[in-house]
Design a protein that fits this description.
315 residues, alpha/beta, two-stranded parallel sheet, 11 helices, 13% strand
Length: 315
């Protein structure tokens, strides 16, 4: 059965047209350890102005990150390239879904200029999924990395990539541009992929991370998962083993937060002590760096974490 949704005649097209007619999901009350302060600082306002001035998108805003106030106050932002519209419809994600527009050839320069104005020592660049492009957007990632290198040669660069729809040669293009950190999030355990991340394939994501390390053994690789989607502890431990088998250096684990009642429900709010216990297990399994807490996100404290990773490797 096909469902037709009028996104043209509506005054405001729905952000997630594929979810518009789904029944509302239950929403659990957030515990005290999840609450954050509203962003009102001067630094936040200055960061917002620079982002708007350059016509850029950030995953901080588009995905509703709870840490936006803290990060933007320090003038840390994660730029989301290739537009604000994703070709996937993951049930956990708040990024807009639909048919994206053409790539902006000036975007690499705009990202580089914003990096310079913010004075970033470390920048994180992510993107929407662009399954409509022949290489999934890999060449555009490479162009952005190159523009930042030329404009801000001392800035270290972390990319958080999609899976490029398993398109041949995509990861090779990105790694050839020499980012300092290659991040690709698994998001959840394999058993939840059909309901949480239906457009992706778990072992293809594992292979993407493994391939990045094969192409450049010195690159730092990183991945993250969310808890609270109904996963079992044993499944989380198996994900750790799979990532270590792919020689991934850095693992992030955070609490899933439901963007709206149309999104996947939060099955459970995982208490902080369980995150700490998982961090201990992950370190025991051989990860060089682990960030595990309810408010952990892939880009949260990315610069500080990269500096620690470099120091560990230098020993």
């Amino acid at each position: 059965m096909a469902v037709l949704i009028d996104t043209v005649g509506a005054a405001t097209p729905p952000r997630h047209p594929e979810k518009a007619h789904r029944p509302d999901q239950p929403a659990l009350r957030k515990p005290d350890w999840i609450r954050v302060k509203a962003p009102v600082s001067r630094g936040y306002a200055e960061t917002r102005h620079i982002v708007r001035e350059h016509g850029l998108h950030t995953v901080c805003e588009e995905a509703g990150c709870p840490n936006i106030g803290e990060c933007w106050e320090k003038k840390h932002a994660t730029f989301m390239i290739m537009g604000d519209t994703c070709t996937r419809a993951c049930s956990f994600c708040d990024v807009k879904t639909g048919l994206p527009g053409a790539l902006d050839p000036a975007e690499p320069a705009h990202v580089a200029d914003a990096t310079a104005k913010l004075g970033l020592a470390h920048i994180v660049v992510t993107s929407v999924d662009r399954d409509d492009l022949d290489d999934g957007g890999a060449a555009h990632f490479a162009a952005v990395i190159g523009a930042i290198r030329r404009r801000c040669p001392k800035t270290t660069i972390e990319v958080l990539t999609p899976d490029f729809l398993r398109k041949a040669g995509a990861v090779e293009k990105v790694v050839a541009a020499r980012p300092d950190v290659f991040n690709h999030n698994l998001e959840t355990v394999p058993s939840k992929y059909l309901t949480v991340r239906p457009g992706a394939r778990y072992f293809a994501s594992i292979r993407l991370l493994q391939r990045a390390k094969e192409l450049d053994p010195l690159i730092f690789t990183k991945s993250g998962i969310m808890l609270g989607l109904g996963e079992e502890r044993g499944e989380v431990l198996q994900v750790m083993d799979d990532l270590r088998a792919a020689d991934v250096d850095f693992l992030t684990i955070g609490q899933y937060l439901q963007p709206s009642r149309k999104h996947h429900p939060v099955v459970r709010f995982v208490p902080p002590d369980e995150f700490q216990a998982l961090a201990a297990v992950a370190y025991a399994k051989g990860f060089s760096m682990v960030s595990s807490s309810p408010l952990t996100r892939s880009s949260h404290h990315a610069g500080e974490d990269f500096a620690r990773l470099k120091a560990l490797r230098a020993r």
